[in-house]
Design a protein that fits this description.
This protein is of the alpha+beta class. The chain folds into three domains: about 5-135, Beta Polymerase, domain 2 (2-Layer Sandwich), CATH 3.30.460.10; about 265-385, no CATH class; about 395-475, no CATH class. It has helices at about 5-15, 25-30, 50-55, 110-115, 135-145, 150-160, 160-175, 180-190, 195-210, 215-220, 225-230, 250-260, 265-275, 280, 295-310, 315-325, 335-345, 350-365, 375-385, 400-405, 415-430, 435-445, 450-475, and strands at about 20-25, 40-45, 60, 65-70, 80-85, 90, 100-105, 120-125, 130-135, 145, 175, 285, 290.
């Protein structure tokens, strides 16, 4: 197993002082799955005071037996922090989050019994490379299932957030939840309301951030957890749309999430929420359903959801901006460069790709086979075109005022003509775009019939602009 040297040395140092030491939890699971662990957690029968004696530059600032040990390099800089925790058992969870009583234990078995899921309840000894697996974690990895340690209801009663963690692990590992464990989640779903919103938000983001966000949302729905986290989304269950949409509002939202081409969780969340305003805006006019201004209603609902779940302000702003602007108009021949500039001004240049990806998710979530039709590619072309600085005399390292001072002349056509000639030369050879050359060349050009030279220069400038435009069109496959 590929375990870093600093981890092995830490384990050995604990053992050299007469104590047991094991890797435990998620890092053991990841090693068995041939994945690189993000964290290396160690459990031991040494109590915190023992650990502090062994590792003098460490901290113990909790009541749960976890000591933070700094791993320093040769220069004395901290490169890693390892969590070393004393074997413990836990009793009573009156707040559905933390144990009322923590008892330090002398046996590893007691520590593994308190853990959430079998795949996280294994320990590894570096001394003899032995896996301690009391609850069938290795078999569950082989079966690709998430199963609670012991009685599922007891585990969820201890910490209700474990219900979301089960779903999160299923999404991250591409596992299924074992039926008895899933039934317990459904039965205990209401207890999630006792959990701090920040903790719920953190698990929810991890679900969105996984490669199986759609499956995660469907598990939250099937286990009844979703009604306690985002009840607003359930208003779309069974709600039919107009003839342009095959699916109900809820099914459209989750399918939009499933088909979102963007890996960023904020864009995925916007895909899930983009039509959340439809139930509140639905009206029947001439026998057909309409959803006027649903994007603005959806923006307000999305804001309330994210604020309630304690999302950061920057995340709220990004998601709600996408929800508000997802209905942008883009018919070829009707959308002008000016209107595209206004759209960029509204959503921000940094959000353009996200907005396009949201529209693709919306289309595919509606059952449309073609993700990116010609008119959407044409919009992308226009977006890039108006953001690219066209070939212009503004690119030169000299300007009209410089030329007037240099030649001691008043404003007039000759200034523009000289600048056009200089630009034509710089187009041919960009290295000429320096003040020394342009100053010298301006003096020379003033001696010639500048209007004739300008006409030839304009031909080069126009050709350059045309070729640049062709390149952008080719990039997005538009004519």
């Amino acid at each position: 197993m590929l375990i870093p040297d600093y981890v092995i040395k830490t384990l050995n140092k604990i053992k050299e002082n007469g104590f047991e030491a094991y890797l435990v939890g998620g890092c053991v699971r990841d090693l068995l799955m041939k994945k690189e662990p993000k964290d290396w957690d160690i459990t031991t029968n040494a109590v915190p005071l023992n650990i502090l004696d062994i590792f003098t530059d460490s901290k113990y600032e909790n009541n749960f037996g976890t000591v933070l040990v700094k791993i320093k390099n040769k220069e004395g800089e901290c490169e890693h922090i390892l969590e070393i925790t004393t074997y413990r058992s836990e009793h009573g969870y009156s707040d559905r989050r933390r144990p009322d009583e923590v008892i330090f234990e002398t046996e590893l078995d007691k520590d593994l019994e308190r853990r959430d899921f079998t795949v996280n309840a294994m320990a590894f000894s570096s001394l003899d490379e032995k896996i301690v697996d009391l609850f069938g974690g290795q078999a569950d990895i082989e079966k690709k299932i998430i199963r609670a340690v012991g009685e599922p209801i007891d585990r969820f009663r201890e910490d209700a957030l474990r219900m979301m963690r089960a779903i999160r692990f299923a999404c991250q590992l591409n596992f299924e939840i074992e039926p008895k464990t899933q039934r317990a989640i459904t039965k205990m779903a209401g207890s999630i309301k006792f959990i701090a919103k920040e903790r719920i938000k953190d698990e929810f983001v991890k679900i969105l951030d996984s490669n199986h966000a759609y499956e995660g949302i469907m598990l939250l729905y099937e286990t009844k957890l979703l009604q306690y986290i985002i009840p607003e989304i359930l208003e779309g269950v069974g709600m039919k749309q107009n003839h342009h949409h095959t699916y109900t509002v809820f099914k459209h939202l989750v399918l939009s999430l499933k088909n979102c081409p963007n890996a960023d969780w904020q864009v995925k969340f916007a895909s899930l929420l983009h039509d959340i305003g439809k139930p509140k805006s639905k009206k029947i006019i001439d026998g057909s359903a309409t959803f006027y201004n649903h994007e603005y209603i959806g923006e307000k609902i999305s804001f309330k959801i994210m604020q309630r779940l304690k999302f950061a302000t920057k995340d709220i702003e990004r998601v709600t901006k996408l929800v508000r602007n997802h209905m942008f108009y883009y018919n070829v021949g009707e959308v002008t460069e000016a209107s595209v500039r206004r759209l960029i001004s509204k959503v921000g240049k940094e959000n353009l790709k996200d907005l396009i990806d949201l529209r693709i998710a919306d289309r595919l979530g509606s059952g449309t086979a073609k993700a990116k039709p010609y008119k959407l590619r044409h919009l992308e072309y226009l977006m890039k075109k108006v953001q690219n600085d066209p070939v212009s005399v503004k690119m030169l390292k000299i300007n009209g005022e410089d030329i007037m001072k240099l030649l001691n002349i008043s404003p007039g056509k000759i200034i523009g003509a000289i600048l056009d000639c200089l630009l034509a030369e710089v187009i041919e050879n960009p290295e000429l775009n320096n003040q020394e050359y342009l100053t010298k060349r301006s003096k020379e050009l003033a001696k010639y019939n500048i209007e004739e030279l300008r006409e030839k220069a304009r031909e080069k400038i126009d050709l350059k602009r045309e070729n640049d435009d062709k390149k952008i069109k080719k990039e997005f496959f538009v004519e």
